Amino acid sequence: MKTSQKKQEKLIDENGIRLDGRKVNELRQLKIEVGILGNADGSAYIEQGKNKILAAVYGPREVHPRHLALPDRALLRCRYHMAPFSVQERKSPAPSRREMELSKVIREALEPSVFIEYYPRTSIDLFIEVLQADGGTRCAGITVASLALADAGIPMRDLVAACAAGKVGGQIVLDLTDVEDKGGEADMPVAFMPNANAITLLQMDGMLTGEEFEQTVNLAVEGCKQAYQLQKEALKAKYTTAKEVVKEEGVEE
Amino acid sequence: MPVFYERRQLVTPGDLLAENDYMTGENTYRENGKIYATRVGLVEYEERRVSVVALKAFYIPMVGDTVIGKVIEVGLSGWNIDIRAPYLAMLRASDALERPFKPQRDDLPSIFDVGDLVIAKVVAYDRTRDPLLTILEPSLGKITRGQIVEITPTKIPRVIGKKGSMVTIIKQETGCQITIGQNGRILVSGKTPEDERLAIMAIRKIEQEAHTSGLTDRVTEMIRKEKGEKEVVENVTKETRKTD
Amino acid sequence: MSSTMTARIKQKRIAQLVARGKRLDERGPNDYREVQIETGLIERAEGSARIRLGKTEVLVGIKIEVGEPFLDVPNEGVLTVNAELVPLASPTFEAGPPDENSIELARIVDRGIRESKAINLESLCVEPGKRVFVVFVDVYVLNHDGNLIDASALASLAALLNTKMFNYEVKEGEIKIKPGYTPLPLRNHPVAVTFAKINDKLIVDPWLEEEQVMDARLTMTVDKDGKICAIQKGGYGYFTTQQILEAAATVTVKAEELRKLVVKE
Lengths: 253, 244, 265
Description:
Helices cover 32% and strands 29% of the residues of chain A. Chain A is α+β, with helices and mostly antiparallel strands.
């Protein structure tokens, strides 16, 4: 629910600095770790501002129930879920309508990146758990889920990075926090696959003129590109340590 | 002849590896004349072909592969076997028994029961059906002793080595029998549990350092060192290991 | 049980035509199917409308009841949108709790009405923190022949315009119904326009078989001043930034065309 005009004035001050000290086009601090769960075929963890989100992949594996299997491709299933303690007021563990919608759009954001046609009659099951939420969880969820898929060794066309942009206090800003989303004029989550220049998730709620819309989309894509670089670094970091260990022992490549 | 990485550099899915003239090798794909990586791994450029040696990938069955599987279900005319692939494999009674299968007389669980391990060969597999196995060849059949090591399937070639050089060294140094399943499972069977442990250690080291050179020598050295230490010190309570 | 899956030959034909700027039913890429509107057909509802968009048929009923406000907005009425993909509407719809498609549909329609502030929710407050009016928008899909989103959003708008609230007064803390009705005041008229991408071309108002061929769809909800108040991309494919801006450029005109059919000045 959007609150009254008064609150908006406090979200960005005269110098263009936001409540958490960021400038209007600044992404929140991102910390990513890949391959942190023992049982899942692939996994990753992200902290973006106060967001803490875990993603895990099982698959490709046999589909249960069997009748859902597709003859010519893998079935990608996605479950976006928020832990009861992830938000200010405890949320019931039962899946809400919002979680069901987000599970759908997140799946649709990631599917173009996976070579599902290589594994007919299997399922690839993706689980996104929001442990702590502060706005932009579907975007951080997509960013970390993409890494979990790569960590599982599932062939992909590209990584998918996501970031939201919006309008807060009359200005177009990048990566809204929960307070900014609730008190601002518009919020637009975007997911982007750079090689194909493809936008795989696009939603908006709020009010934007045509011109503001164009600015917001472009800013969100810029944010996605930044997140994309961090994804690659996190993925490489997991495997670089193995190489470094060998280097220390004085062995040449 | 544009290439964008050096040999053996670490690449991630979506990294642009080459343009135009190159052919696509393993773990790559072509789009609009550009070749990209599909998995995390080390890029290799050979002649006119670019490929990625994946650091992590799951096993996809190939006809002719030797695999080590676990029986997870006994059916009416065969067994369902888990071979660590996206697809469950099937071993029909007719591919397990020398003589014709007689449902009234033959009790399948007494031949193989849930939890049994088998060495088998893939006889059929395509996009439309699950892989079919057979054990009707010498050196295939139920596993009765030894230990199983599971490693990423992509590292299996390294464990085998050029013309079997690596696995031969491990066999020689530890005295163990080693059966390698293409699906990332290795059976180690030695005269003593200690011998088996040495072989397993060697395999784990190879898995960790698969992408380096000079590995054969280091593995030999490690096994000998471990054996030597054990002989000198009678009561070893804590062993330092380079791996694990 | 009949299959709704289009034969591959036909799918190819549809894609080829779209690439050349044509469509199987001879519409242009920016043409909507014929729209038929009927309002006030359900007397028991406070408002109702049925829209036929080509062969797609959606019925929306509006009920207004007394309820409790949300804790964080104690002086506002409540808007709740629900959609049902009724089994008789398509061989692919099954009875049961709402699935992801009906939930997505409801939430897109909801966002259009809510973000455009079409209903003055504060005017629906009876007693702050205690009692408010709840507006139930129930979308009932009767026949699925493609583009349920635009049909549902338009039918919802038509139903809201048709909605009359009973007159009332609050006496001794009780809501007493008085004779007569007052139309529900609407401050905005949100309209949804959906594009489908086939063979890298955008077409408006995809019908069922075009939906089976499309890579992805993009819905933009536009208010009466031409501002975008909701967007939803759906489907397994993607759009380039260019295509999205292209859609945004034509959406206002298309929304106005649809709006004129429903809003009589």
